[in-house]
Structure formats: structure tokens, C-alpha cells
TrEMBL record:
Protein name: Gluconate 2-dehydrogenase subunit 3 family protein
InterPro entries found in the cross-reference section: Gluconate_2DH_su3
The UniProt record lists the keyword Oxidoreductase: yes
Keyword terms: Oxidoreductase
Chain positions covered by the region annotation Disordered: 1-28, 227-246
Annotated GO MF terms: oxidoreductase activity
Family matches, as Pfam families: Gluconate_2-dh3
Documented EC number(s): 1.-.-.-
Signal sequence residues: none
């Protein structure tokens, strides 16, 4: 595991402005995390599931079930959807949280967030258009037949431009690109951080009902079911430091 006291893992403190690959973190020894790495290698949120009520336990454990086939996105969209989710969430090895399937299920079931940006199409249409736009940009950038077929470096470049609302032409002209990024990342991040593997990765204590949380006041005050991280670094403080140089 790398020494992080110098802050060399923080994007804005690195010469290239890119984050250090998360492989610097230790291998997970208990439970599952994306790519089996994380700051809390001896933590498994499922160890506390006996403290959850039955309904909560059923909801959480259902997220660990093997996902079924996509129902909203068609076969031509699936590779681009998966490639985009992997790049945007830095999931480049198994085990992966099935974000594509979770986003697909939400859209197929019509479970929306209760609001829609003014001037933007329905979120379902936004997703379709974003995937089409990514394919068009990949063809223009590298001559690839689709975003999923483009080299990883090109995929990262395109997603970086998308995040900065710098994509234009073709399908992108029909969208507010900044808002489109917000829509798809809201869906992808919401899916990712609702999964117990992500909770293990960030040391999240899981559902607070009916157990509740008693020890408040910072990282030094851990609940009895929580474990210390692999480093003494306060992640929140590190992020604040990184932003000072951003």
C-alpha cells in the first residue's frame, strides 16, 4: 500500500491532474468491494445485518442478487452503456457493482427522481441520446464504430470532455450537455452507492434503522461495528486539501 501522507494520491496535487489508480489501496480481506480493494479491508457491512429489521434486510440483500438481462436499453446500446458506466465510475476490473443493470431497471420500471430539468427531455430520452452522442463522438475521435469499441484512453478523454460540457455536434446539439451529464451521473452514482459493496469500500455503516447511530463527532468516534481505515488519513480532510489546489 502506498504512503499517502504526502498527498500524492490526490488529483490536484499530481503533475498530470489525474487521480492515482486505486490499486494503491489494500486488498479487501473481509466482504466484497469493487475490484476487491478499499480503505477498510477488514470491514463488511453485512456483518451488521442482524441489527436490521426484516424489510430493510430484504431490500439490501436483493441488491446482491444476480441481475437479469437489460429491459430498457436495447442490444445495440448495451456495450456503450456498460463502457460509460465503467469509465465514469472507475470500475476497470471484477467484481463490479452492476450499475448498468441497476440504471436499466430503474428506467424500465419508471422510477424517477420526482423532477426534470427545464428544457431537457424525459430522463429516459436523455439516456438514449447520451449513448448515441458518445458513439458519434468516439467515431469522430478515433474512427471507432462505437464508444465501447474505442481505446480506453479515448473513452476517458471523451468522458472527461462530457463532464466539462465540451461535447458538441450531432446528437449533442439537441441536449444541454451540462444537464445531460448531471442526469446520467445522478443515475449511475445513485445506483453505485446504494449497493453494499460500495458501503464496504467507503466504510459506511449501513441502514440506521432500527439500530441507529450513537457516536457522533468525526472519524475518531467509531461505532462498535465499524473498523479503522487502512490509513490514518481523514478522507474528508484530504478532499478539502485537494480542492484548495484545484
Amino acid at each position: 500500500m502506498a504512503d499517502v501522507t504526502s498527498g500524492h494520491h490526490l488529483p490536484n496535487l499530481r503533475p498530470d491532474g489525474k487521480p492515482l489508480h486505486p490499486s494503491w489501496l489494500p486488498r479487501q480481506r473481509r466482504g466484497v468491494t469493487p475490484q476487491m480493494i478499499g480503505r477498510y479491508p477488514d470491514y463488511d457491512v453485512l456483518g451488521a445485518m442482524d441489527t436490521w429489521d426484516g424489510a430493510t434486510r430484504r431490500v439490501v440483500l436483493a441488491r446482491l442478487e444476480e441481475p437479469g438481462p437489460l429491459r430498457f436499453f436495447d442490444a445495440s446500446e448495451e456495450p456503450t452503456l456498460r463502457a460509460f458506466c465503467d469509465i465514469a465510475l472507475a470500475q476497470d476490473a471484477d467484481p463490479r457493482i452492476p450499475v448498468a443493470e441497476m440504471v436499466d431497471a430503474k428506467l424500465a420500471d419508471g422510477e424517477f427522481d420526482g423532477y426534470q430539468y427545464a428544457g431537457m427531455p424525459d430522463d429516459r430520452d436523455t439516456w438514449h441520446m447520451v449513448l448515441a452522442g458518445l458513439n458519434e463522438t468516439a467515431e469522430a475521435t478515433s474512427g471507432a464504430e462505437s464508444f465501447a469499441a474505442a481505446p480506453i484512453e479515448d473513452q476517458e478523454f471523451i468522458v472527461g470532455r462530457f463532464a466539462k460540457a465540451q461535447l458538441c455536434g450531432g446528437t449533442w446539439e439537441k441536449l444541454n450537455v451540462k444537464r445531460a451529464w448531471s442526469v446520467v451521473m445522478r443515475g449511475a452514482l445513485g445506483a453505485f452507492y446504494s449497493h453494499p459493496w460500495a458501503w464496504n469500500e467507503i466504510g459506511f455503516g449501513g441502514p440506521a434503522y432500527p439500530r441507529g447511530f450513537m457516536r457522533l463527532g468525526g472519524v475518531a468516534n467509531r461505532e462498535q461495528f465499524e473498523t479503522p481505515g487502512a490509513t490514518a488519513e481523514d478522507p474528508a480532510g484530504a478532499v478539502e486539501e485537494d480542492h484548495l489546489y484545484g
